[in-house]
Amino acid sequence: MEAELFLGFNLHAWITIVTVLTMFTVLLFTKWRSDIVFLAAIGVLYVTGVLDAKEAFSGFSSTSVVTVGVLFVVVAGLTHTGVLQCIVRYLLGTPTGYGKAVVRLMLPVAVLSSFLSNTTVVSLFVNIVKMWSKKLNISPSKLLIPLSYASGMGGVCTLIGTPPNLIISGLYEESSGETMNILATTIPGLFCLFIGVLSVIAMRRLLPDRKTPESAFEATSEYTVDLQVPSDNPFIGQTLGEAGLFHVKGGSLIDMYHFDEKPMPIAEDEPLMGGDHLVYAGQIDDLIELAYTHKLVSSDHHVMSIKDLDDSARLRTAYVTFTSSLIGTTIGDSTFEKDNNVVLAAVARSGQRIKEAPRRVELKAGDTLLFVCPKHFNVNASTLANDLHFFDSEAVPNIDYGTIISTVIMIAMVVLSALGVLPLLHCAFLAAAAMLIFRCCNMDQAMRAINWDILMVFAGSAVLGLAIQNTGVAERLASGILDVCGTNPLVVMTAICFVGTFITEFISNTAAGAMFFPIMYQAAEKLGYDPYPFLIALMISVSSSFATPIGSPTHMLVYGPGGYRFSDFMRIGLLMNLIILAANIFIVSIVYPLTPLP
């Protein structure tokens, strides 16, 4: 009883609060896997008795979580039959002027993101937009942020477009017994999208004009490659000049290291020894040819023997993700290249080549890495996919009858659910089964498409929302908000959505949706109003993260390719947050008038 007197919360409530705050702190300031963090949080709530076994693991059987998992299979069918590629091919065109280009880009991206994973859509469009921007003579950095924004704003237009919508709608069904229509957020979402497109065009000057990492790789005088002299190299004993390694075609020697790895003075008469490191700057093709002709190897091969270099090697560009385990490390201090059968050729940061031996560069999030890979290198089959994002790794499938079949399946799923013929989960299961039966994707492709890490986060988010509600935390916070904001329902809705919009800049929008659902629901009921419109506004607000690159996975996808800096998102994003918040409250209050409970 004493615990209940402390700020009105009992022991279980405080355990919940501390668990949630600790979890978000860990996610913000460490590189721990989010699924493990959420699972640990569930474990704490269960072990401490906050939730019983049924409640603690209810997230794994939640309708919304299962729906998300099944939809992964549906998306796999659309991807492997070339539906997305076909749409991209015919939609962008050649617009005249920046405003028309933004419209031609953001609208189709938003439509696709309304039904598909926005991460999948952005991954597909990134390379297309980079090539398209060159054709239009527009800097890619002027279009990649709008690309990411469009995917987020499009996702809120349907319940299946973004995970928070499914989580919130599922929690609403459990609390009220009523089911939300798959198109419940369509009109408010489209209005916010319209305002968002106009805002991007109006604030174009706030978008940065950055050099892309690829432009840094086009410069021939700043390319750096770290090569090593193996112990059986035939040029050992000769000077750099005699061996033809001092003056080289297409480049120059900028550093030399002996066994102690201390830079040596670079002189033409310096003798060559086994184990020497030679760092060259220059044109990549010429430097790779130099490695072949002079029997030099990647410096991770050490000095045991000459390694055969693959004459069919190709260059591949990758970007260091914000959750990569490579951040803060150097490639040279690990066996990364040997383990993944790649050679790091260069590193660029914020569109500028780093003038240092690439294997000695301490990596940061958003760095662009250029690798020499075997011609048939499979990114998805290597550990690289966990730390790096390759935008040229997806093979473009042939457009055939499967494209039409998968499209029909997708449309049928949406129509049947929207008309209320079948519940969304039933429609998703039927669509996934049809994708497999008609061979739009095979079983292996379907299983690989399911992102179990994301499903764990979704399940954990649902459980956290349940804990916040059951322990009275939501009711107490709702009462506190009402004490501050008064009893005007529009003011209360705006206040909670405002906090949700900025919280989601730093945490998963799914977690934000689950955390704020019970608070918004309780606040609406305490005011005596139907929670439905309040929750529609919440769905849009927790997916409206524009101000930081960590606010959305799609921001992370464009961060490296656009050569952006962290502050680039804040310049336009803070204003976008406020503009979309205002548009959200305005349109929701019109489409779904605030209605007192009977």
Quick description:
By secondary structure, the chain is an alpha+beta fold.
Would you give an account of this structure?
The protein is an alpha+beta fold. The protein is 53% helix and 8% strand. It has helices spanning 11-29, 34-47, 53-56, 63-80, 83-91, 98-113, 118-136, 141-155, 163-176, 186-202, 213-217, 284-293, 336-340, 401-418, 424-437, 443-449, 452-470, 473-485, 489-503, 509-527, 531-542, 553-559, 566-591, and strands at 224-228, 247-248, 251-257, 277-282, 297-298, 314-320, 343-349, 352-353, 368-373, 388-390. A 5-stranded antiparallel sheet has the order 2-3-4-1-5, with helices on one face. It has a 5-stranded antiparallel sheet with strand order 8-7-9-6-10. A hairpin with a 2-residue loop joins strand 7 and strand 8. Helix 8 (141-155) packs antiparallel against helix 22 and helix 19 (489-503) packs antiparallel against helix 23. The longest helix is centred in the C-terminal third of the chain and has 26 residues, at 566-591. The protein is elongated and about 95 Å long. It starts with 10 loop residues before the first helix and ends in a 7-residue tail after the last helix. The model is unreliable at 1-5, 218-222, 301-312 and 393-397 (pLDDT under 50).
